Amino acid sequence: MEDQLVLAVATTLATKGAEAFGAGAREAIGSLFRMVRNRFGVGTREAAVLDGAVEHPQEQWRHTALASALAEVMARDPQFATALKSEWQRLAGPGIVAAQGQVANHFSGTAEKVVQARDVRGGIVF
C-alpha cells in the first residue's frame, strides 16, 4: 500500500506538477506540490529529482526516481509522511465505488476522446 501511494503521488507530481506550478492548476495538486517542494528544499538531490520529473513527465523512469526519493524522505521524516498521506487522501477524495456487477466510470484529465463503458460488443468508432 505504501509503495502504491508513493508511486501515485510521484506520478501525480510529475504529470500534473508542471500544470500546478506553471498554470495554477487545482489548488489540491498545487498544495501537494508545494508540500513536497518545501520538504525537499533547494539544491538537494531530491529537489533535482522533482525538477527532472516535472520537466520531463513523459519519462517514466523519472516517476520511479521521484517515488524512491519520496519514500526515502518519508522513512526519515514520519511527520512529513503523515502530512503527505493526509494531503493525498484530501486530493484523492472518497473515491468511486460500484457494487458488484455495476459500473463506476471516472475520468480526470484531458483527452480528445474518452470512452467509458462496460460490456462493449463489437467495435467503437469515432
Kindly describe this structure.
- 62% of the residues lie in helices and 0% in strands.
- The chain is mainly α and 126 residues long.
- The protein has helices at 2-22, 27-40, 45-55, 60-76, 78-92.
- Helix 1 packs across helix 3.
- The longest helix is centred in the first third of the chain and has 21 residues, at 2-22.
Outline the biggest β-sheet.
Answer: none
Terminal CA distance:
38 Å
- Runs in which pLDDT lies below 50 for 5 or more consecutive residues are 20-25
Instruction: Give the SSE order as H and E letters.
Output: HHHHH
Number of helices: 5
Instruction: Tell me the total number of β-strands.
Output: 0
Q: Which radius of gyration do the C-alpha atoms yield?
A: 17 Å
Structural class designation: mainly alpha
Helicity range: 55-70%
Give the rounded overall mean pLDDT: 79
The 3D shape can be described as elongated
**Beta-sheet strand percentage?**
under 5%
List its salient traits.
single chain, mainly alpha, elongated
Please provide a brief summary of the model:
With 126 residues, this protein is mainly alpha-helical. The chain has helices at residues 2-22, 27-40, 45-55, 60-76, 78-92.
Describe the protein's topology.
Layout: H1 2-22, H2 27-40, H3 45-55, H4 60-76, H5 78-92
Helix pairs in contact: 1-2, 1-3, 1-4, 2-5, 3-4, 4-5
